[in-house]
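PROTOCOL LOG
Step 1. Enter all chains and additional molecules of the complex.
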Amino acid sequence: MSAPAPAPPMALLAELTHRCALKCPYCSNPLELERRSSELDTSTWLRLIDEAAAMGVLQISFSGGEPMLRPDIAVLVSRAVERGLYTNLITSGVGFAPEALERVAQAGLDHVQLSVQGVEDAAADHVAGLPGSAARKRLLAGEIARLGLRLTLNAVVHRGNVAQIPALVRLAEDWGAARVEIAHVQYYGWAVANRDRLMPTRAQVERATADLAAERARTAGRLVIDAVLPDYYASYPKPCMGGWGARHINVTPAGKALPCHAAETIPHLVFDNVRDRPLAEIWRDSAAFNAYRGTDWMRDPCRSCERRERDFGGCRCQALLFAGDAAATDPACRLSPLHADMLAVATRDSTADADAYVFRTPGRR
Amino acid sequence: MSAAPVRGDDVPALPRGVRLQFNEARGQWFLQGPERVFEPDEIAVEILKRIDGVRTVDVIARGLAAEFAAPEDEISADVAAFVTELLAIRMLERREPSA
Ligand code: SF4
Ligand code: SF4
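Step 2. Run joint prediction.
Step 3. Record the structure below.
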């Protein structure tokens, strides 16, 4: 196949289910959600965990949807711990009894990432699409503290709540988190359908950047603050996933192995299923992983650009969305011929008359 | 909190959610935390292996100095700097010394 065998992935994102009690309008799950009946069974996940560890994967993130809706979650965490993987649970905190977390903690879970939709209950519940959800999250935060688990507060920010960054950081402190992730909405999945309701203005983004710096200074030594920055107003793209097929492998509820969670939006790619092929073989040989691995696939301006090993030409899915061609330069890059178009879209959407969100719902096409 | 400078009688520990591990498949040591993977060099691995929530910074430095026949004050400074750095990003915590 293509030249030397790639180094093994660092992390496996295990999307156990698309089921979730919430309806976030920026959910990164695909518009076509997998049903419970198509989910991988326990023994397949156990085999995958074994295979991942044998390959040299270091971390596994149990995600979804809501991974706590899987009755076998503690069994899976336990196996991952046995195999020496560092285990993360990425949870919405809703749809299960807080006490259910105890079994997962006892299985040896290393780290919980709890997402919040905002600091005020009513506003947060509106975005989550479920009354009472913010209160449920608070209960779970109490349970996480009681169990002594390492906590990251994960806040997705957009036009409606981006001014709350300092308050979100304070919430994380109140809940005893050691780390906060402030993630500007990435426009994949459901977020594309809501872009004109979610896109912040340039002034908001500048304010958010200043707030972030101030909060980092204020909490230095106590709290780690990571941020996913918006790229619509940037000059260069983000190094998406640390390079296609370089560091991450993502397995969907139905068993498709993806180089990134939005990869399925690229229509010509065919994804192998972990039911049919060992993980290591998929990682090394599958056409989808090799399609944009390394730099050989690039054209100009990326091909001859000195930043090509740094940002890998940006995001393939964003290139597809704007250029209709996943091998194009990410339009977030100022060297892309579509950079001005992207900025125009952001500017237009950020000031659009926002009406109701398109909430995530099963079955919408 | 951890803003106070590291002292010789501080007892560093790996908190829950931080792991030092040798990965067999890769033949290499890793220090891991939430969304963090560090590849410690040989000296860092030797320090980390001795961080057990019981030994003080001084004891760790003395042990390393003896084992590697190195000047103790230099090693002490290195260990203190290393511990300070990891405390600031919460990859280590201070344990109350057991009296
Ligand atoms: S983004 Fe919201 S709706 Fe989507 S899985 Fe997470 S909590 Fe559920
Ligand atoms: S031209 Fe391509 S490689 Fe260069 S900065 Fe832009 S996206 Fe990155």
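Step 4. Note key features.
The domain at 11-90 of chain B is CATH 1.10.10.1150 (Arc Repressor Mutant, subunit A).
The mean pLDDT of chain B is 91.
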